[in-house]
Specification:
alpha/beta; 6 helices; globular
């Protein structure tokens, strides 16, 4: 039951944050926002598509108009670069990404060269802030792995566990989360 409540609260916070970010991006009415969807993750892409459509609908009721420019990509560097170039040709002012940390890092590196911020729905890598050139290259809708690492560390301290095992995925999400935990 607690998990369901946290899930609902998390979804509401993400919707609110996305609405604020997209409203800030479109301060001068009628801006194009790119929607970058990963073909290898259809569930996440569908959720981001629904969240974006809801946000645009809500903003259309005010004086803010956002046009979503949707592009799908394969999880390869070339496909990501081609997709971002396609969005740049459509004059987007920001790109909403439905990728995890590893692919978002690539997207930030490409888009930041054109001063286009990435709005990431799921990237949690704490090192993403330094992936670009030091300006605001990424806006995250999910908390950094730092918070999850602190929560795990607090559990270990609370229960006085001195021996434990951690299973992590072999990508930015798993490895960087463990690295953060090791530094606590």
């Amino acid at each position: 039951l607690l998990k369901i409540h946290l899930s609902i609260i998390d979804r509401m916070l993400r919707q609110s944050l996305l609405m604020l970010v997209m409203q800030a991006v479109s301060m001068f009415h009628g801006y194009e926002v790119g929607l970058l969807l990963n073909t290898a993750s259809p569930e996440t892409s569908a959720a981001i598509r629904r969240l974006s459509a809801f946000t645009v609908t809500q903003l259309d009721q005010s004086s803010t108009t956002i046009h979503l420019q949707e592009v799908s990509y394969e999880p390869t560097y070339l496909s990501i670069m081609q997709s971002i170039c396609s969005l740049l040709e459509r004059n987007v002012v920001a790109i909403l990404s439905a990728s995890g940390s590893t692919l978002t890092k690539v997207q930030v590196n490409i888009a930041s060269q054109f001063n286009i911020p990435i709005i990431s729905a799921t990237a949690t890598n704490p090192f993403l802030e330094s992936a670009g050139s030091g300006k605001v290259d990424i806006v995250r809708l999910s908390p950094s792995d730092v918070y999850q690492s602190h929560a795990v560390f607090d559990l270990l301290k609370t229960y006085k566990w001195h021996q434990f095992s951690i299973l992590a995925s072999a990508d930015d999400y798993g490895i960087d989360g463990v690295v953060q935990l090791q530094h606590l």
